[in-house]
Every structure is written in C-alpha cells, then in structure tokens.
Amino acid sequence: MAFALGACGPRAPAPSPHLAWAYPTGKPEALAEAPPGPHHVPGSPLALDLIALEKSGALPDWFPDEHPPPPAIVKRESPKGPTPCGECHLIAGVGFPGAADLAGLTEAYIIEQVKEFRSGRRRSSQLDRFDTMEMIKVAQAVSDADLKAAASYYARTPRRTRQMVIETDRVPATRPSYFGWMELVPNGRPEPIGGRIIEVPEDRARLFLMDPHTLIIDYAPQGSVVRGERLVRTGGPAGQACRTCHGADLRGLGDAPPLAGRSAAYLARMLWDIKTGARGGPSTAPMQAPVAKLSEAEITDIAAYLAARAP
Predict the structure, then answer these.
(1) Residue 8 has pLDDT above 60, yes or no
(2) Rg of the chain on CA atoms, in Å
(3) Which tens digit of pLDDT belongs to each residue from 268-278?
(4) Alpha carbon 59 to chain centroid distance?
(5) Residue 221 sits in the same domain as residue 277
(6) pTM of the complete model
(7) How far does CA 92 lie from the centroid of its chain?
C-alpha cells in the first residue's frame, strides 16, 4: 500500500543515469505509517480505515462503481502470493508515481510486458531502480492464470488521466525519494527548473490514501510542450511520427499503448530505457530506431507534450 509499516532495507546506490530528473534516487527510508482512520477522500461516500484494511490484506477502493469487479490478484494481499497489482497501480489502474497506469491497455500487451519483466528483457537503465526490481519479483511469482485475470481486468477498466502539465521557469524545492519519485521539501525555496520536469502530487495526503482522482503535476520547462509537439508530429531525427504506431490521437492503436496523458517522468524513463537497450523484446523493437538519435532535451520535450495531451 502507499502507506506501509516498517522500513525498506539498504541498497547499493546505482550509477546516476542520464535524464537524472526522471530517475529520482534517494537514501533508504521507511514508507510513512498510515494515520488513524477512518479516512475520506473528496467525491467518495466511503469511510475507510487504511490500517484495518492493511491488516486484512485488502486495498482501498474509493470508487468501486468506476471499474469492473477486480480479481483477487488486483485487490488483495495473499500470504504466499505476489504483491497485488493494485498496491502500485491502484485498483483503478491509474498508477502511482514510479508505477505505470494500466487501465485501458490491451490484455495481450499487459501479459507480454509482465513476461518481458519475467524473462529479464525489460529492465531499467538505473540498475537498482526500486519499482523495476519490485515488478521483476512480481512477474516471477505471479501465475499465468492470475496474470491473465489481472490483464483482462485492467483492459476493461476505463482509462483516465490525472496528469497536469504546468510550464514554468521555477519549481518548488524537491528531494528524491528512495522509492523513485520526488518529494516536496517543506518550506523549501523555489528553484530554477533547469531543463528538468519535476513531477509531484497536487495533494500528497490524498495520493497516499490511494485516491485515484488525485492530480499529478508535471512542472515542465517553458516552451517544452510546443517543441515536443513538433517532435511527436515529425518523428524528430528518425522522421517516424509517433502517430504511425500509437494512433492519430496518440490514444493507442491495437497493442501499441496510448501515450496521451501519461506521466512525463514515466514516458522519459521508457524512452531512455529503450534507447540504452535496458528495455528490449519484440514489442520494443519498432521503437529502437525512432529513439536512437533522440537527445535528452528532446526526450524531455516529448514527455512534456505527451503528458499534456488529454486521453
């Protein structure tokens, strides 16, 4: 769950990758303990106690009418089973900082990607990236039957974005989290954005209550959205427009995933991981030529534009 009891053990620091803003790497830390309940989030009539839910193995589902009935592998901890999908991707499939949004991806694509993690062909260019290591563990532990159930569920779950892109010259002060996202520094002074995209939740408390309606803000450099639109439309150095595979509206085409409205940090990591060869496999092969000559600045601009597009 987003709140957890206990701490994560130490790990050896990975070499800093390029596009370091997309690969936050902090010192080992514990996830915050859930505050006493009951808890509420805007728009939901439910009152849930996260501590009681955690003890029962269940995950919070604030808006059960917005998705199909989830299978056990998505919504509940199992003593001998893998981490449930909803713990990182949420039951609504909207994802979490560091974890992809899954709602609306095709069943075949989700199954393929989990098997890519299982095989070792899908990794991260940050060698000890927390979310990637966790996903590899899950992929190796999940049964094919549970994988199919989860993939079918998320394929039938309506997709919604919670990204908001704001172009600016200065951003709130942040620090990298051990778990792979950026945390606001309390009472920190705004600082120059410096070619980065800084991704933080609009409301941290709601984010950690696993509210799928919480917005995620991507602060992006001035002009990045317009520059990114040009690159997406023309294909940049490779000359292969993104719409060729991902659809005219960038909402996906066949098993090619939707790009519109995704996390800018996640998109940048995926492009860099493909460029460096950390992410491979059959579905990634068509992407290798388009990303091969992209610079870090171009990837940043592309990520800003795609995150700004409504799905």
Answers:
(1) no
(2) 19
(3) 999 999 999 99
(4) 18
(5) yes
(6) 0.93
(7) 13
